[in-house]
Amino acid sequence: MNFKNLQKTLGVVVDGNIGRSTLTALFKKLGANQSWAEELALASNVHFKDYAILYNELRFAHFIAQLAHESGNFKYMQEIASGAAYEGRKDLGNVMAGDGVRFKGRGPIQLTGRANYKKYGQALGIDFESHPELVATPSIGLLVACKFWTSNALNELADKDDVLSITKKINGGTNGLNDRKANLTKIKGWMS
């Protein structure tokens, strides 16, 4: 697996350096519209290095595969369902009336629950608890995904190629495991 093969697959300049043009082509190939692909690529180009996601191909492949599943192949930055199913979920910090809808899944990692919006907002210096809609902005959502990824030690699990444990950390269970595995296989294949 290597980044040059990914660039060949995407039809971009083959130099082994993952930058905005490669990332834009990747997000677009996975399903994002042009505008979101460009915005996600801009944010990724900055944050992937800061969060050590570009440290190796395995980390990169796992991160992209998981986010592709969570966001419907980068077509949705907000959960399609209303979020009412999360109402009263104390495990998510949804303790006030309307929290389920207000703090439904957003961003490419589908951050969910008042507690997570508060936690990651405080960690990044952005008041997501007062402005949860900000997480649905592709660039901000990508930053949140990076912070979530490293805060939950997912780089280390990616280094072990442990898709099951990564899925459990992101999803709380194994929802969509087969799709996540298929995404991972596809992205690894593009780098082979």
Question: What would the keywords be for this entry?
Answer:
192 residues; mainly alpha; Endochitinase, domain 2; 2 domains
Describe the structure.
The protein is 56% helix and 0% strand. By secondary structure, the chain is mainly alpha-helical. The protein has 2 domains: 1-75 and 152-192, no CATH class; 78-136, 2-Layer Sandwich (Endochitinase, domain 2). Helix 3 (34-50) packs parallel to helix 7 (138-151) and helix 4 (57-70) crosses helix 10 (177-190). It is globular and about 50 Å long. The mean pLDDT is 97.
Helix and strand arrangement:
Elements: H1 3-10, H2 20-30, H3 34-50, H4 57-70, H5 99-102, H6 114-124, H7 138-151, H8 154-159, H9 163-171, H10 177-190
Quick overview:
Residues 72-153 form the Glycoside hydrolase family 19 catalytic domain. By secondary structure, the chain is an all-alpha fold.
Shape call: globular
SSE class: mainly alpha
Largest sheet: none
What's the count of strands? 0
Helix percent band: 55-70%
Q: What are the segments in which pLDDT stays under 50 over at least 5 consecutive residues?
A: none
Distance between the termini: 4 Å
Task: Kindly estimate the percentage of residues that lie in beta strands according to DSSP.
Answer: under 5%
What's the Cα radius of gyration? Answer: 16 Å
Q: What's the tally of helices?
A: 10
Overall tally of domains:
2
**H/E series, N to C?**
HHHHHHHHHH
Query: Would you tell me the overall average pLDDT?
Result: 97
Protein name: Glycoside hydrolase family 19 catalytic domain-containing protein
Pfam families: Glyco_hydro_19
GO molecular function, one term: chitinase activity
